[in-house]
Design a protein that fits this description.
302 residues; mainly alpha; Arc Repressor Mutant, subunit A; 15 helices; 3% strand; globular
Length: 302
């Protein structure tokens, strides 16, 4: 493995030139804005997050502004980002920040992890990117860059390993501010150059140091990794029902939800109807949908 300092000297200047201009990286961004961005970016591309993040920050520029709003407003504003429980967790986190932290997002990783919906990755990312702390930030892009450039593998393991986290910690610069820049630089390299399907190795500042390239760019080992199916899944059904509720100014009768799923031409309408009821029950149980008397439904607290 090249010395960490060699990797730093290659990657940090590259990042200074090629970094994307994203609003949550601006000098005047708030820690709250960074927290919102990190939750939204989980399993979601930047292009989809940008307009939603901008609407959220315009409407709820502080944790208390979101905490004071109905949870249903958060679900509605979440739009089609997917995994809408993240909206509820952000609302719950905003409430804790308002009530327990004087409306200021905490800087300490351990305290950040006590917020609803904030795990190891999000706590480290907020500590690094909002407060310039030295924190080990390991996301999918970081794991892929490390796998290729250091360990010589085409792709990282399916799930985060302790060895990957240890490697990321060893590569981290000692200085807080430099460490924070390094963390976002590795993520940016993975997002823009060292991509999963079509890495642009000739554009990579680490190309001559890359263990994967030196090994002849071997193909991934193990069974092929398939993307998640969408059509006909519970995720599509849940998304369809939630979008109907988002688009409606008031409560929605059960008949309208029944008409929305199964979709026209469904091959097994009876099974699709059972799927709809199962998904609707789950949305109610998760707090994303509120049942009302008279077989009507609405977003919670709206």
């Amino acid at each position: 493995m090249p010395a960490p300092e060699v990797l730093h000297d290659r990657l940090l200047p590259w990042y200074a030139v090629h970094r994307r201009d994203l609003p949550w990286r601006d000098q005047d961004r708030s820690p709250w804005g960074v927290l919102v961005s990190e939750v939204m970016l989980q399993q979601t591309p930047v292009s989809r997050v940008l307009p939603v993040w901008e609407r959220w920050m315009s409407r709820w520029p502080t944790p208390s502004a979101l905490a004071d709003a109905p949870t249903g407003d958060a679900v509605r504003e979440w739009g089609r980002l997917g995994y809408p429980r993240r909206a509820l967790r952000l609302h719950a986190a905003a409430t804790v920040v308002r009530d327990a932290h004087d409306d200021e997002v905490p800087a300490d990783e351990a305290v950040l992890r006590t917020l609803p919906g904030v795990g190891d990755y999000t706590a480290a990312a907020v500590a690094a990117f909002a407060f310039g702390r030295r924190a080990t930030v390991v996301d999918t892009n970081v794991r892929r860059v490390q796998a290729r450039s250091v360990t010589g593998l085409a792709l990282p393991a399916p799930a985060l390993t302790r060895a990957e986290t240890s490697l990321a910690a060893r590569l981290l610069p000692q200085d807080d501010a430099v460490a924070a820049r390094w963390s976002v630089a590795v993520m940016e390299l993975g997002a823009l150059v060292c991509t999963a399907r079509a890495p642009r190795c000739t554009e990579c500042p680490l190309v001559d140091l890359c263990a994967w390239r030196a090994a002849g760019s071997p193909a991934p080992s193990g069974p092929p990794r398939r993307g998640q199916r969408w059509t006909g899944t519970d995720r599509q059904c849940r998304g369809t029902l939630l979008q109907l509720l988002r688009d409606s100014p008031g409560p929605v009768p059960a008949e309208r939800l029944q008409a929305a799923w199964p979709t026209p031409g469904a091959e097994e309408p009876e099974e699709a109807a059972r799927q709809r009821e199962r998904c609707l029950d789950a949305l109610v149980a998760e707090g994303l949908v509120e049942p009302l008397p008279g077989a009507r439904f609405r977003l919670p607290g709206t």
